[in-house]
Structures are given as structure tokens and as C-alpha cells.
Amino acid sequence: MPKKKAKKIGKLSIQQRRFVNNVLEGMDAKNAYIKAGYTARGKSAEASASQLLGNPKVQPLIKEVQNKANKAAEITQQRIKDEESRLAFYDLKELFDSKGTIIPPHKLPKNIRQAIHGIEIIVGPLGETKYKYKFHEKGKALERLERIEGMNQPEKHIVDLEGKIEIINSYAIPDDEDTP
After folding, report:
1. Which of 40, 64, 79, 109 has its CA 20 to 30 A from that of 153?
2. Measured between alpha carbons, how far is 98 from 175 in angstroms, rounded to an integer?
3. CA torsion 35→38→41→45, rounded to 10°?
4. Tell me, which fold does domain 8-55 have in CATH?
5. Which region holds residue 100: left if phi is over 0, alpha if psi is between -120 and 50, else beta?
6. Percentage, residues of the chain above pLDDT 70
7. Which of 21-35, 92-106, 109-123, 156-170 has the lowest mean pLDDT?
8. Whole-angstrom distance, CA of residue 119 vs CA of residue 117
């Protein structure tokens, strides 16, 4: 009986696409191979799965999707750093115009608007409008930035059997006269 030809979607068969999806979902190659509908078992499944991973049609697709995911993760990480920087480094003088009058929300610079946690709008008896801005805490934003950047980590030492000490990460310890 002639072998049944697998249906193809684009360049890959349906089973190959299932295999790729399983691998991208974090499944090991052997189980991804079996779940995709291939019939090999045991060591044969491992060898076949390894061979399929190296397939010139499968490998580029896996790499392409992983690269896109990595790029998206970098953008997200950079966006978080940018947002935390806005919260940590805004300048309150940007709240005021050249005459010292507080600027209404719709005229504030973008970086200031993004640092605002809340606004209270007060309308006086004569219809005059005043604004009270509440900002995110700079100190907490700075702490989060330090964590993102790996700063202020405790000092770690590695001592080998010969007694040599290697400092992995260090930070400044204040002198006794600097501490309250």
C-alpha cells in the first residue's frame, strides 16, 4: 500500500507545524514529536525528533518565532525602564509656566503627565479652576529602577580552596561618620 502523503500548510506539513508549536510552547522535542502525531516511540522518537529539529524547513521557523518573542520581550523591558525613569526623574518646574502659574493638565509636557498619579480639580465660587496634582513616589520608582538594573545587590564573595576571595558584586558601605 502506498504511503499516505501528509497535508502541507505553506512549506510545512500539518504534523511539522504541530511539532513547531509544541516546541515553542516549551515541550521537549521527543514529547513534541509524539504529540504532533508522529508514531515513533522511545529512542526512535528522540532520534526522529532531533532530526526534525534540524530540518531546514522547521529550524528557521522556530528561530524566527523565538527571535520575534525575544524582540518583544526587549521592547517590554525597555518600556518598563522608560516608564520608571519618567516617574523617578520628572522635574516639578515643568508644572509651571513662565509666570509661575500651574499649567492645566492638557498643556503639561508628556513626561509630566505620565508621572501624575491623580488630579484633583477644584472649581472656585467664581468659576476659576485650580488643579492639585498627585505624583507617583520618586523614591519607589528609583528603587524599582535599581532592581531592574541590578544595583544595590548585597556583596557576594567566592572563596576558593586556596583562600582567594573574588568579589562578584559590591556596593558602597557608608563610613561610620556618615551614618546617623
Report:
1. 79
2. 43
3. -90
4. Arc Repressor Mutant, subunit A (1.10.10)
5. left
6. 77
7. 156-170
8. 7
